[in-house]
Amino acid sequence: MPERENILRLEGRILAELCKSVARHYQCAETSEMELQTAVPWLRFIRVSEPTLFNRGMLEPSMCMLLQGRKKMLIGDNVTEYGPGNYSMAAVDMPVSGQVTQATVSEPYYGVRIDLNSREIADLIVSLQITLPEKQGESVNPGAWISSADEALQDAFLRLVKVLDTPDDLPVMSKLIKQEILYRLVTSPSGATFWKQTLSWNQGKGVGEALAWIKRHFAEPLKIDELAKRVGMSTSSLHHRFKALTVMSPLQYQKQIRLLEARRLLLSGGQDVANVAWQVGYESPSQFNREYRRSFGAAPLQDVETLRQMGVTL
């Protein structure tokens, strides 16, 4: 028990130091924006000063560690609430809903996010000759989940944030520390789940190709039998594995991409609802309005006005 208590105290100190560093970067940037892009293209900070409503969006392949505050994430039908020291992970582009449940001006929600790509992961595994777990039957795990960062992973994030203060070291050290973070993720208890989704030679390969095709052609009519043939899978297998990975069918996934793109276009301004609906693939404006309201909880213009009042940009 004393050893466990010492570990928790150390982790608490690391998170506190991370919060201080992130807060200082926001102060230096003199910005009120929720996201702060750092000098490293794949590293950004997140700050929220009050609880939010559930907001739907596309979670791209990334890892985001929560430093302070609390958050809920809805993945499919499962809601998970998590706090400091936990992180969200996405191996594929996943439509999810998130809600910050604990945040104040004096103690904001803070997060640190790094973008990921499967090529980096594959290269690391090959170079270090890491042995991956054997495949377990035909199961496929959801492409996004919540896990807990141990002391070593938290410390790597702290060193990554600190190296932002030494510009001469940044180009080299940031890459090395990211390699360490990836290594610790590879060897973590949830590592097997991650690699099953991201590496090109696993059973998710066909699904990955299907995801990419839908993202590129989301405004076009989607015929499942043709998509299955395109990615070398049977229709039933594509349905099963696609839903296991994204917790939705291919058609539902396409609809979410259409609606999220429509939201982005409306928020950018200058276009009416009917034109945006047509651009993202809807032939019927009334159907678009119904599905938009069902997904975001308000009619398009009302939703966009609320987002603007909150200072949200997409």
Protein described:
It is a single chain. By secondary structure, this protein is of the alpha+beta class. The chain has two domains: 2-198, Jelly Rolls, CATH 2.60.120.10; 204-314, Orthogonal Bundle (Arc Repressor Mutant, subunit A). Helices cover 49% and strands 18% of the residues. The chain is built from twelve helices and ten strands. It has helices at residues 2-29, 118-128, 151-162, 170-186, 191-198, 205-216, 224-230, 235-246, 250-268, 273-279, 285-296, 300-309; strands at 35-37, 43-48, 55-59, 62-68, 70-75, 78-82, 86-90, 94-102, 109-115, 144-148. The protein has a six-stranded antiparallel β-sheet with strand order 1-2-9-4-7-10, covered by helices on one side. Strand 5 (70-75) and strand 6 (78-82) form a beta hairpin. Helix 1 (2-29) runs parallel beside helix 3 (151-162), helix 2 (118-128) crosses helix 4 and helix 6 packs parallel to helix 9 (250-268). It is globular and about 55 Å long. The N and C termini lie far apart (46 Å). The model is unreliable at 135-140 and 200-204 (pLDDT under 50).
